[in-house]
């Protein structure tokens, strides 16, 4: 009896690759939606010519400016022009910088990423260390104190901690500069100010993760085998607790990269995209606002995609595409 | 179980070494020259492009930086509260026709790039400015263009007859013919004829440094060899930088923070904050009610508690002492709530419902606080005040330009009225001539007097006529005159300098001293 054998398909994507491609497609769609929302918001915010020109500007001046900037064109035409430009990464000329808005944003982005990365490293090192320390001492007085401190830290507004650090460590005891960039010292205070709330949150998550992992049967087996505490911690405990830590840490990095930098960059005059965004909104620089939001969204989506891949590597139990 | 994950001594050693290393790297002020020869100032607004014509309106930081780099045909000088205009790149001028002024240009002046200054440069700069699409300051909107007569003579044309073109041109920094065609170069540099030149600008435009122009044509001896600008968006951080001796001057501080600064440099403002009154409601058609609104303004409290002393009295008119047509004999309505209440009761206006329109962001919290304070005072008179806070473009469309847009104007409209060219004409034309653009109060005698004064072609006669118009208006009270805010910058002790008009006209070669 002959059994027909179906030929294997020539190309077959692995579930992981298919998942990644789906995520990228979803990210692109999300970007387009964000751009559409940005356009709509500026349409309802009011007359951009009246917002830009001085209050004594004559009607002729306003009309000329409106015509020169294309604000008189039909809304659909403006929308099409806007979206077409955005797809080509052409958001127009920044009215305040006098050059292409996307170039202004790309110049500022590395500064924000440096700040966010430094903050993340501080957060991860301090948060994991303190959280682990608290977790292995769960229930002790020291643990309770640390929990209270962590709760306070997680609720401290960044602008407040930033100004307090400036007063304490730049004015009263002038160790660090009050702001600016270009030196390693200038990076310290803004990074520490930004790190305080996520450290508070991470300490809690790590503590809980460590505490619950320590109660697992395999940890009892490890201790009964006579394995040292450090080895047990590194080889078993932290690895098992890594997924929730990476999950929260990744969320914090995403938040830091975009939302968290806005306030701190303004307080410390750090030349990143957060400060750029505030300036653009104050000046009603539509091109710069659009470009900033686009880049910020793209960074967030890229980070989330990378985190997904990291999860799958950390925990083989997380499978994609299987029923 | 209690053993530390990391060795305690190792952690301590790492922490201490990090602090020491980073302290050594601490840049402090980051100034370029030796400590006593560099003045560092901070500002809240972004520098943006250095092209002085591309973005006129949003360029407060640029004006602070480039006021000593580019020069106008004339320059404002101060003698106490009195301002006057002296020759600079022009040596003389005359009004040859009502809308044409002729300027004789200075010979032997060169730009920072070595090119020679002449009439072509003036024509180029002013033509760029006169372009309807340029977002220029409204005081320059009356400049129609320029025409070359010869290499050292140029005619400036205006859209309307004007006595004060010599003042207007002081605000126009002349740049070389063709400057700005290379947009990238104009974004990152500025070429002028001034005693300072741009030495460097960081790519993010958050720091810029000026250095002395060794080939300057004039006879000035700047105290500072370099001037450094830093953009610090946060107002608290600007004050902190001043107190940490990282900067010598800090601009854009709110009055409460100015009060905490080591020292301040102030200058009278050219603006008056007012409540424009609409006579649409019967209550406001009664002069007693309008006068009562003036009697109910506690200027001392507004000056001392809202503006922390950084304001002056408006003296019962909408222009400041330096302005053409200012009447020195007028005084404010004194603060007298009893008198105000008496007038309201006499007019039978108790219980009248009035709207007060203010803007949310244009004047910052001071604007909204002023509105709320006045509303509270008027409520005590028995009036029912509804305060509307609107974003800027709606505040303009529905408030300032309500007559033009044919929408009901608010009964009371908060705005700061000013004159960049120190001339009462615009103020009178806007508010006293029963015009259809901004006027919400119409009195025939006031209208006729204002129009006749505006049409005069003799400047001294016009000044006297304007004074009479201001006196008439003071009695009729078509608006509430609140305060005249002072311009101020925070400084280190021992720093001396001069601010002009709106506090963003600064000539750094006039500044000196350092602690």
Keywords:
A: 323 residues, mainly alpha, 2 domains, 12 helices, B: 515 residues, alpha+beta, D-Maltodextrin-Binding Protein, domain 2, Dipeptide-binding Protein, domain 1, Dipeptide-binding Protein, domain 3, six-stranded mixed β-sheet, 17 helices, disordered N terminus
Describe this structure in words.
The complex is a heterodimer of chains A (323) and B (515). With 323 residues, chain A is mainly alpha-helical. Chain A has two domains: 16-87, no CATH class; 101-314, MetI-like fold (Orthogonal Bundle). Chain A has twelve helices and no strands. Chain A has helices at residues 15-44, 48-52, 59-69, 75-87, 101-136, 141-155, 158-172, 184-214, 217-224, 229-267, 273-283, 286-314. The longest helix of chain A has 39 residues, at 229-267. Chain A is globular and about 85 Å long. In chain A, 39% of the residues are buried. The mean pLDDT of chain A is 81. Chain B has 515 residues and is α+β, with helices and mostly antiparallel strands. Chain B folds into three domains: 23-66 and 194-265 and 488-515, Periplasmic binding protein-like II (D-Maltodextrin-Binding Protein, domain 2), CATH 3.40.190; 70-181, Dipeptide-binding Protein, domain 1 (Alpha-Beta Complex); 271-485, Dipeptide-binding Protein, Domain 3 (Dipeptide-binding Protein, domain 3). Chain B has 17 helices and 19 strands. Chain B has helices at 8-25, 60-66, 119-130, 165-168, 183-188, 235-243, 255-259, 282-285, 287-295, 299-306, 337-347, 364-380, 392-400, 402-405, 425-431, 444-454, 459-476, and strands at 38-43, 74-79, 82-87, 90-97, 100-105, 143-150, 153-158, 196-201, 207-212, 226-231, 249-250, 263-267, 271-277, 311-312, 353-359, 384-390, 412-418, 479-485, 487-491. In chain B, the strands form four sheets. Chain B has a seven-stranded mixed β-sheet with strand order 8-9-10-1-11-19-12, sandwiched between helices. In chain B, α9 runs antiparallel to α11. Chain B starts with 7 loop residues before the first helix and ends in a 24-residue tail after the last strand. The chains are: A mainly alpha (323), B alpha+beta (515). At the A-B interface, α2, α3, α5, α7 and α8 of A face α1, α5, α6 and α13 of B.
